[in-house]
Amino acid sequence: MTSLYELSNDFKEAAVALAEVDDPRAIADTLEGLKIPVEQKALQVARYIGNLDSEAKAIKEAEARMKARRDALNAKAARIKAYLKDNMEKCGIDRLSCEYFALSIKKNPPALVIDNEAAIPGEFVEEVVVKKIDKASLKKYLKNNDEEYAHITHGTRLEIK
User: Fold this and answer.
1) d(C-alpha 16, C-alpha 28), whole Å
2) What is the per-residue pLDDT across 91-124, written as a single tens digit (0 to 9) for each?
3) How many structural domains is the chain composed of?
4) Is the Cβ–Cβ distance between 104 and 94 less than 8 Å?
5) Can you give the pLDDT at residue 24?
6) What domain range is 95 assigned to?
7) How does pLDDT run across 55-74, given as a tens digit for each residue?
8) C-alpha closest to that of 11 among 42, 45, 35
């Protein structure tokens, strides 16, 4: 089967070769004859793109379902772990073990809790400045002005509906 790339090259080569032909009807018929297989192949490629997009969407939906399930399992494990810890502490049990695993209640490292952020002395505060470019306003400005630091470009895209 001929590829779209080969068909488009054949079309382009024919257009160049026909530039020297004087019969407009012959040129139109030849190009139309070459154009039909290109159009058919392009539609086949578009159908394939649709299939790939559908498969990717199905995978994304499956990932979302699996993530929801994973999150639910993690949350359930965390709740049961807290339940076990609370009950071990209530009973004064700090160690348990069997042939498969060992349980122990451990102290966490010291954690900082901020009660009043505004009252913290300046020596402990780091000012962070985040620079953000207002691209919409800059684009609007550049439509009427030329500058060295930025420019507007116009690309193309294939839209399949």
Assistant:
1) 13
2) 999 999 999 989 999 999 999 999 999 999 999 9
3) 1
4) yes
5) 73
6) 4-118
7) 999 999 999 999 999 999 99
8) 35
